[in-house]
Amino acid sequence: MVDSPYLPTESVRTARGPAVGYLMVMGAATLFAVNGTVSKVVLESGVTSLRLTQARCAGALVGLGLLVLLTRPGSLRTTRRELGFLAVFGVCGVAFVQLFYFAAIARLEIGVSLLIQYTAPLFVALWARFVFKEHVRSRVWLALALALVGLSVMVDVWGGVPLNTAGVVLSFISAVTFAAYLLLAEHAVGRRDPVSLLVYGFFFATLFWAVAQPWWSFPVDELAESVSLLGNLAETTLPAWALVLVIVVLGTIVPFILMVGSLQHLPATTVGMVAMLEPVLGAIVAYLWLDETLAAQQLVGGAIVLAAIFLAQTSR
Predict the structure, then answer these.
(1) Rounded CA gap, 37 and 282, in Å?
(2) Could you tell me if residue 202 is inside a domain?
(3) Could you tell me which of 69, 33, 30, 38 has the C-alpha nearest to residue 56?
(4) How far apart are CA 88 and CA 206, in angstroms?
(5) pTM of the model
(6) What's the structural domain count of the chain?
């Protein structure tokens, strides 16, 4: 992409090191992939996906807030004008991505919904091309198409998967909000450090969830129960709250810092492409932990996604 007045410049990213950005987003994708299986264990215990998301946002707010207050409290300074932008980022970019994704998987198979959600990089590329009037190389479009084919192979969309209209619509809304998250974060990191940005993001997301699901009705008793880790770790049990803590720290705080931080080194289109490692790694984690089937077609689909990511990076 060419330089834009709305986005951090390519020269700034290059100076900070694109290799660091790749490592950051790959680390985030790995942690998100593991977090998917941990979250499934918690959800199997009876905690609803919406309540888990509420606890995840609030926990991340506490952890990130303490980190900033102890190290760089001055970074939280903001203006009234920026506060409005941060509210949009927190609600539309942080809360809505999860809200519409969970609403979609309640009506649609998770694999199909995830495939649709990962059309987000395409929306980012379309926005960059037609709104910011930036040049997007043809190789990037080919890589995006190839990645979608790989994800399609992984979830076997040609195998007669039943589609629910509402679920499909909600999945595409989730993809749009994911694209908005990447673009809003890319815009913000040119003016604000990633950690303070996330503090505000999770602050407004937590406010949103507090209104949507009042805290006084939160099922605290469910978090005190011991739950099986399922699959190959079925004989091991841990309190639900301990797993939620893992989700907050290793499944939210650390990967979100890595993901947003990577936008200081790479453009949103590239970050979105590399993030497509998540469903591939998620399938491997589910196979090793939950003993879920890892069929040959899933391996082939994963290889196609990896090839697409490599192709996209060669366009730089």
Answers:
(1) 8
(2) yes
(3) 38
(4) 13
(5) 0.78
(6) 1
